[in-house]
Amino acid sequence: KSVADVLAAARKQATKKKSPPPSGKGKSVADVLAAARKQVTKAKAATSTGAGKSVADILATARRHKGPAEDPGQTASEPQKPTSSTSQPEHGGTPPSAAELAEMMRASAGKGARKPPPSSPGQAVWQGLSSKTQLAIKRMAEMTDAADSHDRDAQELILGKLLQLSRDRDFLASPAIRDVWAQQSVQRTTASFPQGIKGIAKDWSDMEVRIGGRLALEAIFPDTFPKRNAAAGPPLILTYLSRGDWFGEAGVVQRQPRNATCIAFDHPPDDSGRRPGRVELVRIPADIFAEILRENPKLRQRVESTIQARAQNTADTEQTKAWDSRNSLLTAPDYRDAGFVQGQRLLLIDLDRCTRCGDCVRACVNTHEDGYTRLFLDGPRFDRFLVPSACRNCLNPSCMIGCPVGAIVRGDNGQIEIMDWCVGCEMCAKQCPYDSIQMHDLGLIGPATSGWSVSANRSSGDVSADVGNPIIWDFHLAAQAGWSGQGLTPPSAPRSWEVSHEFQVNRAQRSDYEMFRLQVSSMAHSLRLWLNGRLLELPPDAFPTRRSPAELPLPAETLRNGINRLRAEVQLAEETVGTDDVTLNFGDVLFDLRLDGLPTIDADVASMSTTGRMVMDPVTQRAVVCDLCSSLPGQRPACVDQCPHEAAIRIDARFDMDTLVEVGYDAVSAGRARS
User: Which of 54, 170, 497, 536 shows the greatest Cβ crowding within 10 Å of its Cβ?
Assistant: First the structure.
């Protein structure tokens, strides 16, 4: 053929390809799009109608619409032909169906467009699940065999994601499930939570979030999630765990979801600014833990026995009503908030037996060489028992946190001990939330020292004996001096006062210290001081001083072995009294004195370049705590042993309190004897 014939044939062939298909052989593009829009509308209506259905309803719907995933260009009657990575699938001349095009539009919207906000709680749950979890739900819905539908891995995945979603504060606070919180069954529990539903984001505790999330899932899927036992009262405390314990082993060994909540439990809060304790956990992955059990048969046996014991304990606890006396103590808010469960050796005084004889306190004093009591009969009451402020031997002692010199330790008997290098910083006393650590003054003359005598003048003979230190200007002293008011006085009123005191110094105290420090303060215009009849030379600018005490170093030879006598003469200025311009007011310190020993160390020991002795600031107080009489034979506490009426007892509050309240002292004592 000629070139003209070839070109004419090519034009005719191109014209045939551009012509539309014959009528009736296929639908137009407009018809296809209209059908697709109708299908999308039906799908949205179905989603809106079934959004609040249970998981079972979702699975049933998925089974009705199950079918193999089809390529958008593949028809239902013709299988897809294999293609290469660069080729396009062949459509065989048949356009996609309306359902296929709707699926294409939904997939395209899911990839590029933003998901619309959920319009119902069920839809919010579905959107909150991961694509992997959604696929697992769809696959379970497609399974026809009942055995296959119980795929354990898929069930664990779905359940785990739902539980994770129930702990998501953002999900629980979302507007989509706002109506769920308004249901009466949910409000019955959440109404007592901090700030109600407004506190989900910040104010609810982790435990309250877990409870609220579970209630929300129960309300959204009432036919799927079993109801919590709302009539069981407050949460049941199964056990308390401490150092060396473990949990979560049942879920790994038996492949079961957890059936209890574990929370970090610290001492009850107070207003002392106490630094909170820490709960440190070591997390062992399930596969590593399973491998350890396979390689250690003894450990596996121990773990399995622990699982059985805890399962039995959980079953027994769940069968016990919350108001039953066997379970009321551990779940009582007063018992928990008072921190009794921390006490491994909690001291109790049975007030029905106690006669207030004080033998327990005297026994405590006589047991310790320093003469300080560790027992104060003051503290909270629970049932018929007084819980005095003695060391409880806590599971997690917060008093050991923060000591700057490491002077507080645990002894071999588990007792708390204060070492002799304590610097008296009061950190341990502030950290103890139960006032079980007291600070005792170490001064030869310290605050609240009694036995002082105060006289307005020598000639009057009016003496106030046995006054405590410091001596405060008050109405009693003003009346003794003839003062008519707080500052006004007749001309005959005395302008000087005499203060005296006797104290003892033993030979050991004189040998321990080479120097002593005397501190004196007063609101007086001038002051003279005598020690054992010797006039002491105070700094010339010591008075009048009203902000800091005057200090005077004393050599050890200034003091005597035995009784020493201090005498002071306090002189008030003329302008201090008798005028309206009063400078001495009620509550001012008329006289105060303190005497401490000064420790000395070798200068070379202190890494000093100079030789000689270096004087250090004295330790003026020291912490004192009950040591459980661990130094006594048998380590039986003296306060318990010396009580003539068996009113004092030490118990492990985690196990013995219920028995003590129900049965009595004899049952607990017998149980301890058998153990």
Answer: 497
Q: For residue 64, give both structure tokens.
A: 């009705």
Q: What Cα–Cα distance (Å) separates residue 631 from each residue in 374, 635, 637?
A: 14, 6, 10
Tokens of 62: 């998925």
How many angstroms separate the CA atoms of 495 and 573, rounded? 7
Q: Answer for the pair 416, 381: CB distance below 8 angstroms, yes or no.
A: no
- Tens of pLDDT, residue by residue over 119-162, are 788 888 888 888 888 888 888 777 755 555 566 778 778 888 88
Residue 82 lies in a domain: no
Residues 198 and 105 both lie in one domain: yes
Q: Are residues 600 and 458 in the same domain?
A: yes
Determine the Cα–Cα distance for residues 568 and 450; give it in Å rounded to an integer.
Answer: 16
Residue 506 identity: N
How many independent structural domains does the chain possess?
3
Interstrand relation of 385-386 and 408-410 (parallel, antiparallel or unpaired) = unpaired
**Position 640 in a domain:** no
Q: Which residues pair with 94 in a beta bridge?
A: none
Which is nearest to 94 in space by CA: 104, 109, 80, 112?
80
Residues 598 and 519 in one domain: yes
In Å, how far are 180, 246, 260, 283, 440 from 302, measured between CA atoms? 45, 12, 21, 19, 48
Q: Show the domain range for 546.
A: 452-615
Q: Which two tokens stand for residue 553?
A: 């170093």
Asked whether the beta carbons of 43 and 102 are under 8 A apart, the reply is yes
Q: What single DSSP character describes residue 230? A: G
Domain check: are 198 and 328 in the same one?
A: no
Q: How far is CA 671 from CA 414, 463, 637, 655, in A?
A: 21, 60, 18, 11
**Distance of alpha carbon 224 from the chain centroid:** 35
Cβ contact 566:530 at 8 Å: yes
Q: How confident is the model over 9-55, as pLDDT tens digits?
A: 655 655 554 455 444 444 554 565 566 556 545 554 544 444 444 54
How many CA atoms are closer than 13 Å to the CA of 588, on its beta-carbon side?
18
What is the Cα–Cα distance from 622 to 130, expressed in whole angstroms? 60
Same domain, 221 and 258: no
Rounded CA-CA distance 399/416 in Å is: 9
581 three-state secondary structure: coil
Cβ within 8 Å of residue 572, ≥6 positions away: 495, 496, 497, 524, 525, 584
Question: What percentage of the chain exceeds 70 in pLDDT?
Answer: 64
212 contacts: CB under 8 Å, gap ≥ 6 = 172, 186, 189, 190, 193, 200, 204
Q: Which amino acid is at 128?
A: G
Residue 30 to residues 18, 26, 71, 94, 108: CA-CA distances in angstroms? 19, 12, 21, 15, 20
Amino acid at 464: S
Residues 133 and 273 in one domain: no
H or E element that contains 303: helix 297-319
For residue 28, the model assigns a pLDDT of 56
Tell which of 315, 335, 355 closes a domain. 335
- Output the six-digit token pair for 567: 């005498």
Q: What is the pTM of this model?
A: 0.56
| Region of residue 87 (left: phi > 0; alpha: psi -120 to 50; beta: else) | beta
Q: 122, 137 in Cβ contact below 8 A?
A: no
